[in-house]
Amino acid sequence: MASSTTTEAALEQAAQLVESKQQADAKFPEISELLHASSSCEYEAGIPPDWQVVRKQRAVGLPDALFEQYDLLECRCFMGLFPEIGRAWITVDHRLFLWNYEDEEDFYTFEGQEQVIVSVGLVRPQRGVFVDDVKHVLVVATPLEVFLLGVGYRAGPRGGDVTLYATQISVAADGVAMTSIAGTADGRILMAGNDGALYELQYRAADGWLSRRARKVNLTAGVLSYFVPTFLSAATRGAVSAAVSVVVDDTRRLAYVLQQDAAIRLFWLGADGSAFEHVLTHRSVGAAAALLCPQFEGTGVELVSLHVIPIHESRSLALVAVTSGGARIYFSTVGRAQRLHSTVAAAAAASEKPAVFDVVHVRLAPGSPGARVHAAYCGGSTTLLARAAGEDHDAVVGIAPASAQILARAARQPRASLVELAAEARVEGRTWALAEIGGQTMRNDLATVDAVPQRRFAALTNAGVTVLEQQRPLDMLRALLSQPTVRDAELRAFVSTYGLDEACAMCYALLCADDTQPMRVDAAARRLLFEHGGIPRAAEAPAFATASGTEQSGGQVELSGRHNGLAMYLARVLQPVWTLPALAADGAQLRMALNTQLLASVQRRLQRLQRFVASDQRFVPDQLGNFAAAVAQTADSARCWQAEAASLAALYDLLVRAIEVASFADLLCELNLPAASATMPPDQRQQLADATFARLVCGTGRSLCRDLALALVHAQPVGSSALSDVLGARCAGMFSAADVALCRALEHLRAAAEADEDAAAATLARDALELLVGIAASLSIQQLRDACAAFEKLDRLSCVWTLALACATQSDPRDTALAFWGDGAPAGDEREALYRRRMDCYNVVLEMLDRRWPVDIRVLQQLPREDPLFQFALFDWLLARDQSSLLFRMHAPLVEQYLLIEPRTLEKGDMLWHFYVQSSQYYNAALVLQQLACASDLDLSLTKRIEYLSLAITNAKTSVGSASANAVPADELSLMVRETEDLLDVAQVQLVIQQQLEQQQNNEAARDLDRRIYTVTELYDRFAEPLRLWDAMLLIFKASNHDDAQMVEDVWQVLLRSVLDDQQSTGLLAVSSKVSQLGSRLYPSASAFPLTVVARILVDLSLERPAEYSRGLIFNTFVQAQVPHGAIFDALNKLYSQRASSSQGCSEFAALVAREVSLLAADWIDSQASSEQPRGLRDEKLVDSLPVMDVDTALSQYIINATLSNNQELKSALQHVQERLRQIF
């Protein structure tokens, strides 16, 4: 059949209608929104009345071998379900059986111990304890011990395979019978005991030095319980009600314990699940429920089981308890104000430690009071209650929300209330356990199609396992239509209950089902759809937008149920893939992201829907207009029918387009998608990876699919025409006339490459260029690249830049990109897209030149010069090629303008200051260099920044006296030089800090120092002071002229003593080396290098370590630091004067200082004596470089003190130096 000519706008409207239906399906209220009253009890029967909520699918009897084991029972028998591994567990005294109820005769027997088994649990293993094959841990409890078995499970048909592993992990039970076992998501094991306590079995991979591999911890006992003997604590167990069961809520990190007296204890497991804290105990559940619901008998209430409500099902309701009468009592751990007024606050509070534990709603059992409920299941809004219906069978009451009734009330009332369907199903035997074993949980069971698996439950009885399937409204309609005679009353009741739109949507689901429908059901569904599907009509209410109507020039039109049902069903079929990405990036390639089986399933349903719609003229797009005109009676009805025809046509085209996209995806799986996508530009690959299935169906997806299809053409060894035929047959709507021209041009280029004669090749290349220039505006960049690559292989270089520049100009015929560049390329401007498009076109030419480098200068001179934007792109290319001189020769008038425009880059900055130097604009060069050094947005090393600052100073000083200096005021130039020199000083300090950080292997902090030049304050506060970088502190003191003498002295003390105490250092020699190294950088800064202070420290250290001291060490240290002899003398003489008259210890100090002065003077004399200058000049230098008279006076004083202290050796040395000094002087 022919496709309609629906516009893209109509297609978008159809997609919006589909999405509105999907959103409506997703807005089904959660359970807490429906239970807003204090109590409720509203149930309805299905249609037909004998319809069941859960239907028996099959019954599997216990194997005869297990019955034989049951006959050997001596003490106790328990049983339950492990749906995680597809097994039922049964204990007979000390024997444990794991029965595969999918494979009736398959069961595993464990008889590895002799004690009666009282409880069994299946939990997740802790990480790092067991081998990878252990997916679960089986916890087996006896009155004497609790032990663990590893469970290996491999899923497969008929229940898969189970393997048990001995773990050698066990703990003593101390006579406590564990009544219930539960595990958390991270592997914690909680056990409820018949003594009323809650225990945790803690284990690890191996025994510790002082602890065992496993232990049992009583989580609910006080501290004193650890000091009470076991027999005494056993004697007091009767004071606490026995624990019946424990359940865990991993979504909220909570645990609940049900006690025999109907009390419920709530425990908080901590934010990370590793803690344990008793929060609250609800001891009066029955009384609290009776206050909320007068009809509830609260006295002596018996709670059968507790069931967690995960946070994704309800943000405020956390737990439901089922009573023996079948009532459900709902609990909340969220405060009333948060629960009623703020869903956001409720969601936040649900993940925190609860402060309340309240009964908030009572849901009474359906029907009149019956037999006692002895087993229950609650989950995913479905409830199953098992009660005795006879001596040999039970009745399982299935309860599920009545979705249609709830939605109908939500449409009429501000707040909908819960209405449920309830019906009984018979199971053979007495029910021990109920569990969900498969299927898909849906809050709104109306939003389903035939492919969604039904929820399946297992009822374990003493006779076997009965598998139950939950019935949905779709199943209800199927049952209704499958009756030999469809009762009109029941059909009207069904349509009235679920609405005409939903009933029609279900008809589409039945007519397009995977399985073959009975002809009776098919015929009845067609009759319901076409005879009772309604007609479009003018809306009586004022016009407003609705999901089931459309706005026309004559007013709002309410479309028929047949139309709305089609939109609903189409939305539900597409829902599994509609918002999912179709492709995913895999490195530099693409791969299919959609599940191919899921996509094939959706495609099959879409194709069946298309065939069904196409089989009736009332749906055929080509016949819609004629049919609408034929059935219309009035102008108003004609308008309504035309509106429905247009909407149906758009939906049909959306259906066809979705099938084509699915077919295209299927084709991608057949072809070499990874190899083809690897040739695509990264941005196209990213767009395809980001595109959802919906985006491929409408919007920009069409062009994305075309780009990918052309990439496939290039990647295939066959001709593109053959592949185009395949694409045209499967996806006829994906190729336009421009696509055909492109494919034909590519074929010409391939033929030209294979031509034997140059003339033929030239003709084919010319024809291809003509075709491509004609569609240049529609070419993508990748398509342009592919075509130009083909021209380049043919050595048709002029065709490359002709096509690329044509593509650029046709894409922007008004030169909008040039105006955008002239305005400074403002961010967020809508013109930027055109500018980027033109730049991409230019890059095609430049990349071709790259591949042919070195390029003949004549080729560069042939490049068109009419396009200024292309000229700047060419500048970028030449700059990247380090061809600045060539650039200046070719386009000198535009160079400065080009280098000054944004974005600023390091390469362009280097180019600019070199340009200024070549043109003798040294001041401008200095400014650029300073800006580069201080730029925090450029990736520069600190050494490079220092180099730029040095060059800036050099250029600034060079500009003095140059021609360009006349334009710069002298004071401005001087200020710029001082600022740059200050920056250089700080940068050099910063370099010292960086080197020290690198020595400490603090690479992250060292890298931070590359990012910019810091201030001295920042260097001190962020690096030097917190990291105790003493050298850097002193350099900072010098750079900042710091005047805190005590702080400076403290830094020197710490620094030199740390050097002295370093075990890897050479003692005083290392100290001397450190002072010389720093002094050469710090002198003559009195704030950072106080000579007297440093000299005193050196003397003190020398006295502390006389064995390491060598004569002249102190004065030589200062000489190596390039301190003048005179300054050294002043510092040492000042020290001597301060200490000469002190105690004996200070006399040693003075003697050492005096000896250093004498050696200093001798060294000074020797250095002057070795000079070859004339005598008169040498005498003048002696006087200027050393205060000779002061030295002579000081020596005289030292001699007197040495005489008084009877230090003959020192006295002789001093006298000898004094004599030499006087002789020379």
From TrEMBL:
Record-annotated Nucleoporin Nup133/Nup155-like N-terminal domain positions: 60-366
Gene3D superfamilies: 1.20.58.1780, Nucleoporin, helical C-terminal domain, Nucleoporin, helical domain, central subdomain, Nucleoporin, helical domain, N-terminal subdomain
GO molecular function: structural constituent of nuclear pore
InterPro entries, alphabetized: Nucleoporin_Nup133/Nup155_C, Nucleoporin_Nup133/Nup155_N, Nucleoporin_Nup155, Nucleoporin_Nup155_C_1, Nucleoporin_Nup155_C_2, Nucleoporin_Nup155_C_3
Keyword line: Nucleus, Transport
This protein's record includes keyword Nucleus: yes
Stored Pfam families: Nucleoporin_C, Nucleoporin_N
Annotated Gene Ontology cellular component terms: nuclear pore inner ring
Cell location: Nucleus
Gene Ontology BP terms: protein import into nucleus; protein localization to nuclear inner membrane; RNA export from nucleus; transcription-dependent tethering of RNA polymerase II gene DNA at nuclear periphery
Domain (Nucleoporin Nup133/Nup155-like C-terminal) ranges: 560-1205
Keyword Nucleus on entry: yes
Entry's family note: Belongs to the non-repetitive/WGA-negative nucleoporin family.
PANTHER family for this protein: NUCLEAR PORE COMPLEX PROTEIN NUP155
Protein's recorded name: Nucleoporin Nup133/Nup155-like N-terminal domain-containing protein
